[in-house]
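Posted in: Protein Modeling Q&A

I'm a second-year student putting together a small comparison for a lab meeting, and my supervisor asked me to include a predicted structure for RNA-directed DNA polymerase. I've never done this before, so apologies if this is the wrong subforum. The sequence is pasted below exactly as I got it from our records. If anyone can share the structure token output, I'd also love a short note on what stands out.
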Amino acid sequence: IQDLLAALSGSAWFCVLDLKSEYWQVALRPEDREKTVFSIYQKGLWQFKVMPFGLCNAPATFQRLMERVIPANLALTYLDDLIIHGPDFETVLGKLERVLECLKKANLQINLKKCTFFKQETRYLGHIISANGVQTDPTKTQAVAEWPTPKTKKELHSFLGFCSYYRRFVKDFAERAKPLTRLTEAHTQFCWDAECEKSFDDLKKSMMSAKLLAFPVLTEPFILDCDASAHGVGAVLSQVHGGEE
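Accepted answer (user: helix_wrangler)
Welcome! Here is the predicted structure, written out as tokens:
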């Protein structure tokens, strides 16, 4: 996902397309349909004619399909989410026309209710995208503000997993989360103390005030800042924009 977002550098206009019931648009070969057999009470055995949701290889199969159908120079694809981008309106309009032609040729349908067209700021894969860069989507991170204190390791894993998706937006994430990640270790007893509560609250506040990350300008120099402590290591790749790092 980070590679996809980085590829949006230099773009100012965006269209996001969502495919309708994506897996159901992929037909199964007749000889493979029996592998999806399921039973319904008093109605016998049934099998899918299309790829059902829940198959372990369904995401990889669909991603391969999208990469064959949509050329990388027209749109970026992540399963059923496509983003068409460009530096100006005309470029994106031309790409959109060609993408729709590719989808039509492959008999793939989009869900218009979930699509956005010709935006200069849009939501994509849990992020807000604009010409200025990438930031967290407030509609997603709002869940952190309402997250209850974990009572078990499983609940803590769930919280840390969510936060880790946006970890690059939080300075010193590993250091801040250390008291919590220590609790998830296999032979560590789950004992929630004041230090854990402080770390939990700190992470929640940091997630809600996450910074915007600017797109890299490949023609400008990069600055690499590194740091380490007894609890973690970290590095930041930055550039100078408008006289400010």
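A couple of things worth pointing out for your meeting: The chain has two domains: 2-131, 138-208. The two ends are 25 Å apart (CA to CA).
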